[in-house]
Amino acid sequence: MKLHVHDTSDAMAKAAAETAGRILREAIAKKGQAAFIAATGASQFGFLKYLVAAPDIAWERTTMFHLDEYIGFSADHPAGFRRYLRERLTSRVPIGTVQFIEGDAPNLEKELNRLNRLLAATPIDVAFVGIGENGHLAFNDPPADLEVETPYIIVNLDEACRRQQFGEGWFKSLQDVPTRAISMSVKQIMKSGYIICTVPERRKAQAVKACLEGEISPMFPASILRRHPHCFLVLDREAASELSPSTLSA
User: Exposed site from 2, 11, 92, 95, fewest CB < 10 Å?
Assistant: First the structure.
């Protein structure tokens, strides 16, 4: 893992997008195509803004997989992640193939099988992710299963995760936040050639500290990122505010 700390969230987002653009361009130049995983949430706002403006990416040669989605939400639900990605990514650049999670599919088992076949057959060049206030990675809340091999799984959302979604303004009340979602598994995320993890804001500082300075543990799922050889953890000063000097200088 490579740790990068920037003074502001805007500088963090710009740097992360520059790295993402470079990885995508290199993959396309080498193989003629690239596949990536797109995350959502407040941590991705700036990153996606700069990514869609990045120059010289042959988006039509890319495939996008969707990181997670609430179960039961329509494609147009205001808090749904398909709508989020359409508004901030897929409507702004001509991505060749978009593989959304249909959280409202009438047969969830069939939908999972469809996604899992597609993802298992597609090497992922780079995953864009964040870290939750509870240390989650995607919607793998603690204690997360770090060993499950299945690419997409159904997960239960814990209260801390649901409070974060409410606190970020996606829902009118905590009761409105779903309790289940489809999420990419931790092991599948870790199979990505590169991972770019962007984490802004002081509210994430305790989780960042636990994931970087505590044990690698299912109780802090994103701690597993320390084992990835090509993970860029990109923070702003607020998110890095509780890290020890030894971690910051490593």
Answer: 2
